[in-house]
Amino acid sequence: MSFISPGRLTRIFLAFALLLGAIGLQSGSISPYNKHQKAFYAAQSVIDFARPGLVITINSAKIASDGTITVTYTLTDPAGLPLDAAGVTTPGAVSLAYVASYIPTGQAQYVAYTTSSASGKALGTIIRPDFELGNPPTSLGNGQYTYTFTAKAPAGFEAAATTTVAVDGNRDLTAFNLGISYAGTTFNFVPNGAAVTVTRDVIRTASCNTCHSELAFHGGYAHGMQMCVLCHQPQNADPTTGNSLDLKVMAHKIHMGSSLPSVVGTATTKGVPYQIAGYMNFITDFSTVVDPATVQRCEVCHSQTTGAAQATAFMTMPSRVACGSCHDDVNFATGANHPGGFQPDDTQCHNCHVPQGELPFDASIQGAHVTASDTALTYPQNPDTLITGDAIVITGITNTLAGEKPVVKFTIKDTKGNVLKMSDLEDLGFTMAGPTTDYGYTSFGSDVTTPGIVSEDGTVATCDSSSNCTYTFLHAIPAKATGTYAIAVESERLENILSGTNSAQQVESGTQNQVVYFSVDGSPVVDRRTVVTQANCNQCHVHVTGHGARRNDPEYCIMCHNPSLTDSATRAQSTVPAILAQPAQSLNFNFMIHRIHTGVNLAAQGASYIMITHNGRVDDFSGTLYPVMYGDGTTGDTQICSMCHVNNSEANLPIGLNLVTNPQYWINPTVQPVSSSCSGCHASKAEAAHFLANTDSLGESCTTCHAAGAQFAVDSVDAQ
Predict the structure, then answer these.
(1) Rounded to whole angstroms, how far apart are CA atoms 539 and 209?
(2) Who is most buried in 5, 273, 286, 556, counting CB within 10 A?
(3) Architecture of domain 387-535+544-557 in CATH?
(4) What is d(CA 365, CA 354) in angstroms, rounded to the nearest whole number?
């Protein structure tokens, strides 16, 4: 056994650092790291030495005649330089996990070679898929390794079956304040040397990442859908609860969560929580999950645009197991709760459940799952029976100077361009706010009770036969107003679908909120700063709406949800003494949205977020689980701000903006703008004390430490 002296080891590292430094100089000034990674902000000398990141490339794999499974792979940094898994000759040890599975002939899902035993009160001791950890690989030099699996293919294994191996790893660079780098990959082969023709490719990781950002599980030893399907197949179950861990069952149930019939229960039976026992038998309860896209939108996961080879499988291959995972009150053996009666196997499913019928809400896969608001997109061939939505377009605004009453010109049509009458609408409204430097405290008259805005009923507008309409505001722009103001439109219409049938529905539709900016003093028009966009919201929510179908764009939401808005008016509608006795809750948009998405992380900070809405209804968001994942597989990663934010706005502190009214916060009744924004996620009393300690009569001193480029800048602190 050779021994490397500390002095020699130091010289090796120094030489290595010099080599990397030279390479770094040659690579130019463009960083290979993005702003969400700690390496983006690290000193170049540290980067040149540690070369953070991890890339795993599987070169080959085979199964010998005696069943021995081996995989050969290469570990490199993002620049392609080889890494030492032990962390001796290159910084950062790499911990690795391995999986091997195959798709039996004539089947569509994997069976694992790598297994382990697990015990629980529901199923006793079972053998289920697992990954292998701990066994050291054999180094072939230059970052290349061969791993020999402990598991072996049994005698007579299927040499003609598609076999897949996975190598997943974590590179620990925490000693350099560079966090942990995660990587994983899979490799398909046929042991007899034939070409791979059979794969399992139903959902791509890209679909999952629209909401999860980085699909990861099991402490960072499983990344991506291509690895998940190797273990989460019919072989897999939770022996503690008895629940299946087959992905097509587990994923459906998790996303269905609080809507599962088994969780909801019936008038005579109590619901049963949907739980899974994980590592060390830690129980995770998914019974409160609410899918932000609504579970009916199957194509959020089963996307038809990612290139997945079997993307249409959910429509063309219905099965009792897959369908029963969501509809878990159906008993296919007896026919209970199934209009088609009992089904002894899956051979008849496709007869009724075709991919798509002619009309929505039928027994077809798409028809049974379509949301009413999506029917125009899903059934373009039937325009007369489906909702067409509203398209209220502001075509011009006049009388826009301070002291004048704005005149709004607009048209009323549906989304297909057909003219609508005013009487077709349930309501139509215009909202005015300003200035765009920051909304919240402008008064539009003593008769206006809503803070910072004025909203007026546009249904009294005058229109010609082509629905070209004109509305004159009853309230004037304040006489001393300066800068840029905004007017926005909202509407709602009730539409009937499939009238006269047992699928008849009445659906609310609304226009896309349009916000028009104008100068009130002749100065250049300056739009309100863009912090988040509707497109980013819709990555998870698909079609984000609030207050019925009226409001759907954060550019409009912020006009009402401004620094002065609280729930005081709706709180007063409550009949519960405890609620009436509590101070009002802030509904300022950045505080509200941060608190809602922080959700389950609030309790540990001694905080919550409960708002009182219309008619005194209590909306408690303290249990909201933000679905974005950390690299180790845990959820609730609110540090990836760009899921919502655009233009690097998360790094630009809202210095000098309006005070935020928040009587319920530690600092009250008003709090400085930066403190309010940060307190949305940093909700503890100790953090409130930090905000207060760095605020005086001159204002906040947050930029000293937290401005872009400062030592503790928001973007660098949140990086991983």
Answers:
(1) 9
(2) 556
(3) Sandwich (2.60)
(4) 6
